[in-house]
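Tutorial, part two.
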Amino acid sequence: MVTVLGSRLDPSGPEYVANREAMLDKLRGVEAEHAKAIGGGGAKYVERHRKRGKLLARERIELLLDPDTPFLELSPLAAWGSDYPVGASLVTGIGVIEGVECLVTANDPTVRGGASNPWTLKKALRANEIAFANRLPVVSLVESGGADLPSQKEIFIPGGALFKDITRLSAAGVPTVAVVFGNSTAGGAYIPGMSDHVIMVKERAKVFLGGPPLVKMATGEESDDESLGGAEMHARTSGLADYFAVDEPDALRQARRVVARLNWRKAHADPGVVEPPKYDEEELLGIVPGDLKAPFDPREVVARVVDGSDFDEFKPLYGPSLVTGWAELHGYPVGVLANAQGVLFSEESQKAAQFIQLANQRDIPLVFLHNTTGYMVGKEYEQGGIIKHGAMMINAVSNSRVPHLSVLMGASYGAGHYGMCGRAYDPRFLFAWPSAKSAVMGPQQLAGVLSIVARASAAAKGQPYDDEADAGLRAMVEQQIESESLPMFLSGRLYDDGVIDPRDTRTVLGLCLSALHTAPVEGARGGFGVFRM
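Running the prediction step on this input gives:
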């Protein structure tokens, strides 16, 4: 039986060309915001950092990782749209060190000395969550002045979870390594204090609960940075430093040796040589329409992402607006759920629930490709049981134990976002294309609902309705919901792990699958709760 997907995409057609140009335009906007994160605190502070003989955060990561291996940066747009710099003064991601996939974090000291703001905290907590779920060793490249004091009310109380995470990772047998390049003071001192392995840089690392001014105020004692918390003191006297580095490259070399000696093994062997898709990944740029109301066939995406474009579709004639099936991606087996026509009906919901159960029986990770306006509404569908059938799908997603990967390609609205494993349903990783939108419903629908309710309220009170004011209100609401549903807004709030170029989808998913197979992949064997029939 031939299961290689065919393709009807016409890359020379006007519709494809228009879609491609719209996607490229959105990509340019995302790249401009990424550039802000890479720029750190700006040219002035980057130059000052370099004059001190220090490497930038991403340069440290580059020296830490194995040569010519990829780094999957996570949440690069954190804090976008807030009062804080894009990137939240922290770089996080997954990279390979001495052949071991690790979760790497690096403070960016060019942004307010690497101080942590509320979005830094959220980003760091998300990184720890990823490390814990996938059993990835954590390497922290530390240089931070601690909390951004003006925002301490949003950092201090929840910030204690960072230290809790480090100890829980260690207790779970997941190694933690701290490399200290500069300040790691006050609460930040507990990062090396709680890590399994600690490396400090000579005459640069400063680790103490209270610096000389605070010590003077608290005890009257005169002290200096080096005797109070310098690398040599901690290496020779306190014993906090396990390794003493003469400079930054030496510290990174020693960190690589620590990882090499971890005796760390993946739960699953890496696949061998895999067959690439039959179709060009470049063509992914022109599949999603600029107008998300226009449908597109998600099989065209699947054909350009999975190995050999080989896809065994499950129940192809039943519930056709949700495509489900089995494939391999970079050699790893996956089950794919992809929205076809946007709306989820009862049949699609029941089909999804069965498919998710099967994946759990077989210990197969699931990939969710979003383009849904939600579950179908209307008298016919309510009478047909759409609530209980939608709940069945959400129940299955909620209680599934195999890893989930979600990619928002187009719309992801309403409870359909939940059924397709949105952020609240703990996917191992969730990424968005620049074309994606996510909200409780579409902007026009939401504004229209508010208008209908306001009109009915006026009628009930016997009051005239101001149609001109209504039009203005609808326009304002539509604009607000549109702006709040865009991927950069959502990524800034860490509702995804990054906005990616569609052409990178196969690579990103492959890196995620490889990382998550560091831990055992085991599905639920029952325990799905009550399915209302």
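The first strand starts at residue 72 and ends at 74. In part three we will examine how such features are distributed along the chain.
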